[in-house]
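Exercise 7. Given the components listed, write out the predicted structure of the assembled complex. Treat all entries as one system.
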Amino acid sequence: MTLSKQAKHDFDAAPWSGKTKRYDIVKEGSVAVAFVAIAAIVLSLLMGSPDEAPLTFKGWAVSNADNFYVTAVQELAGTSGSATYGGPYNKASDGLNVGPLWLQKWAGVTHPVDTVNEFVIAPLSTQVMSTEIASALATWKAAAESQKHTWATAYDDAITKAEGKLSDVAPGAYGPVPALAKGLTDMAKGGALDAALLSQGGFFQTDNTKQILFFGDGSYLDDAGTEANLQGGTWGMMNETGRYPGQAWLWLYSFWYQIPPFNNEESAPIGANADAYIMVLMGLLSLGLILIPVIPGVKSLPMRIPIHRGIWRQYYDANGIKCRKK
Amino acid sequence: MTGWISDFMNHPATYLKTGWLQISVSNLIVIVLMLIIFALAILVPFPKDKEGHK
Amino acid sequence: MSEMWTAKLRNKWQKNLPIEKLLPDDQPAYVVSWIYVFGVLTLAALAVIIFSGIILAFEGPAWYHISDSGLFVNSLHFWSVQMFFVFMVVHLWGKYWMAAWRGDRFRTWATGAIAFVASIATAFTGYLVQTNFDSQWISFEAKDGFNSMGIGAFFNVTNLGQMLLLHVAFLPLILGVLTVIHVLMVRRRGVVPPIDAIPTLSEVGR
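Answer.
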């Protein structure tokens, strides 16, 4: 007997009036909790959990002083990643877009970051200084904005020209910038920069934005990410530090970053705005997951590929219900 | 209680790579385990309840 | 006099979710497959996550770095999260291949799928508040995606305070509500009948 679509729907929606069996819902829940709790205890006793110590500015400056120094110059010159980021930190760039949607720009600067003062000048100013640094700071603070900019960008350009090799940098009119960068590097080496950036002149502090942004402007954090195989272009989003399982459920989000055009920053408009396009894509796919019951083709696949025959085997066998004709 | 084999766990993972595909052994184990669990859940017979009632 | 709101609510509740449906002692005879345990296993994993999470919350975010028992509780939280996603995905696969949305069960499917997405968001904030290298990396990388959508303007992944409060208070509340609604819907409608079931036939077992 074949039922009409409506009859099938009514039958599926109606309370079950056929045979029932015993079911202890409280016992089922209790057994499940006990099972998972014991499994979690065993796994925890066997393998622990990942906890790699956070990186510090001290670690950065001690292991790669030159890279820290160059980054400090870039913060003063306004050429670092943070300084040129755009919203929500500053207006230096329009940020990413998807077609006519410039959401990053439209959301505005809600978390202003001033790399020159907040990353370099203010931390240096909190310290008990040598006469050299005190003098460099005084010179900087007394100078006009345009003069500061000229000094810093000139030095940044010279470093870029020397391909980061500080010993090869040509002499020039850089004002107090070299002294300031050296002062900050020494401060970082001593551990004082971690504390200064953490407190940011206040007492209580729970927002690590400035530290993370400054950190990411150099190579220290990036190299650590590469070493731990966490880079986006190598499925890093799915990975965990050490040998621990990561986030397998992020496989589809991570996938897009591996393929063209998303994996090529030079490829406009999609590759250059990959983060934005992939966010939109994942939003649409998530909506798709929720709407599976109404998507033609997808919603009928379970009827056409009868995995359910295994699930309800006992019911079909006992009632002589054969597999439906294709 | 840092874990009996946590010393083993806190070393860099092994990655299986082919072309642009790359997965850590740990993640592969989790995914394969999920597929096996799903297959077993479908195929392993569920104990029958003798007492039916209507 | 028009019917009281309270009476209306009580009557609707008693009609759709009487106590016999909330705490049943029988179920359709066709519910004989191991696939059916993955919903309750997911809930059980969530219970262990919440329990271990409460202990971590009570002791503060830095506790597990400096205490062996803290690291153990953190491990409980970590592994119960791994199990939570494994069980939930197997549950999702099962429900898909059973076309479990049939018979007016679209909202059951939808709340489940939304809960899946909400779980990922909740787990994400958890990864951000580990206060270790992983948190530094994830926050630095993840900010770009959210900033590109303008979401970063009010959802700041590098703001530990915000992420911690969202992870411990706001998102578990949302997830809890979604989960409760999802489970109540299952209780209300019952487990979906087999595909191609025939109304007059309900034998099970040989």
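Discussion: Chain C touches chain A through 102 residues (CB under 8 Å). Residues 42 and 86 of chain C are 8 Å apart (CA to CA).
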